[in-house]
Specification:
Helix content is 41%, strand content 16%. Bound molecules: pyridoxal-5'-phosphate.
Length: 383
């Protein structure tokens, strides 16, 4: 049987037809009045949706570029920064900050758990940190950081900016920039927005913008807030060519989010995350993240004894389901499954059924139907 390929890695996520259609439109000039209007509306909608008074930047590039953009616009060589790391992507900030000549202190957790907020608070009292960075969801571990609690605690440290990497969270996990005391939040289009890769979205609050102002001219050019701010305020202006079709695609994604309702979307992600994790536990997998800090957007699943990672993922691929391997010391011991964005409920059932079949194929005792039963019960609420 020749199955379609269902991309279930934690980004890019499946792109629905109406978003694909926007990417397939005939490209127009970036100064075309109709496009300028669309871009302007998109920026306004994103600000509205995440209830922020700050500024929004929509710039061609990936999540990593947004990480650099956050650092470049708020910190200068010699500043102290505190990196909270719950995995591979938390660690990525270390190199970005070190290359910029920052003094970096790191609080890192065991993979699967979080750094307690009390420990972060204690560390922040030691020095005048100019910023703290944390990934809301670290994609390598499936750990969700308690950003609301961290934000609340950080109110006492007025000089420390709260920089949140939302790449594997934003538009899937609950986030309100102002209410959570976040100064910078960013993501890429390929995750919970359900658009193809290629755009970074970054929110900067008043404190972050003040910090930018205090820095004067910065060494970075393309990612300078001050190069993009005039464009975000009036997209008829030019700085660097906008990704016209991706901007349309993101606009359609935002329309879908508005149609669903942001709260409903957060609730759906939570429900789906829990249901998928329960279903996968029922057929022998162990979720890496502790039960009280699990992401809803993806699951990081440790194999049952005796299952060969390469053989299992090859079988899944042949059956049409594409998942990601484990990172770091979990390579070969774990696989990663995205369930965020505009994921289809029927596809989720099919994913679990295919995983059950593939487990059988690579030698595990028969699990057929067990995970699907749990998933169906959890998602549909039937006994
Ligand atoms: C939490 C997190 N931060 C940053 C990144 C880097 O994003 P990109 O690959 O779009 O550069 C990723 C990518 O998966 C991520 O999951």
């Amino acid at each position: 049987m020749n199955n379609r390929k269902l991309v279930m890695i934690p980004g890019p996520t499946p792109v629905v037809r109406s978003i694909q259609d926007q990417m397939g439109r005939e490209t127009v000039a970036f100064g075309d009045p109709a496009f300028v209007k669309d871009f302007k509306e998109l920026v306004a909608d994103i600000k509205d949706m995440w209830r922020t008074e700050g500024e929004v930047f929509v710039v061609a590039g990936t999540g990593t570029m947004a990480m650099e953009m956050a650092v470049a616009n708020t910190l200068k060589a010699g500043d102290d920064v505190l990196v909270i790391s719950h995995g591979y992507f938390g660690d990525r900030f270390i190199e970005i900050c070190e290359r910029k000549g920052l003094h970096v202190d790191v609080l890192a957790s065991e993979w699967g758990s979080i750094v307690p907020v009390s420990e972060i608070e204690k560390k922040l009292k030691e020095k005048n940190y100019k910023a703290l960075t944390v990934s809301h969801v670290d994609t390598s571990t499936g750990v969700k950081a308690p950003i609301e609690d961290i934000g609340r605690m950080m109110k006492q440290f007025e000089d420390t900016l709260f920089i949140v990497d939302g790449v594997c969270a934003t538009a899937g996990e609950t986030e309100y920039v102002d209410e959570m005391n976040i100064d910078i939040l960013f993501t890429g289009t390929q995750k919970a927005f359900g658009v193809a890769p290629g755009l970074a979205i970054l929110w900067a609050g008043p404190k972050a913008l003040e910090r930018r102002e205090s820095l004067g001219t910065i060494p970075e050019y393309y990612i300078d807030f001050y190069k993009w701010l005039p464009i975000m305020q009036d997209p008829a202006k030019y700085f660097a060519t906008p990704a016209v079709n991706l901007i349309w695609a993101l606009k359609e994604s935002v329309r879908l989010i508005q149609e669903e309702g942001l709260e409903n979307r957060y609730e759906r992600h939570e429900r789906v995350g829990k249901a998928m994790q329960k279903a996968l536990e029922a057929i022998g997998f162990k979720v890496l993240a502790d039960s009280n800090n699990r992401a809803s957007t993806l699951s990081n699943l440790i194999y049952p004894e005796g299952i060969d990672d390469a053989a299992f993922r090859k079988k899944l691929y042949e059956e049409g389901i594409v998942v990601a391997g484990g990172l770091g010391s979990y390579a070969g011991k774990m696989f990663r499954l995205g369930h965020m964005g505009n994921i289809d409920m029927h596809d989720l059932v099919s994913v679990i059924a295919t995983i059950e079949r593939s487990l059988c194929d690579v030698g595990m005792e028969n699990q057929i139907g067990k995970g699907v039963a749990v998933l169906t019960k959890e998602l549909m609420g039937c006994e």
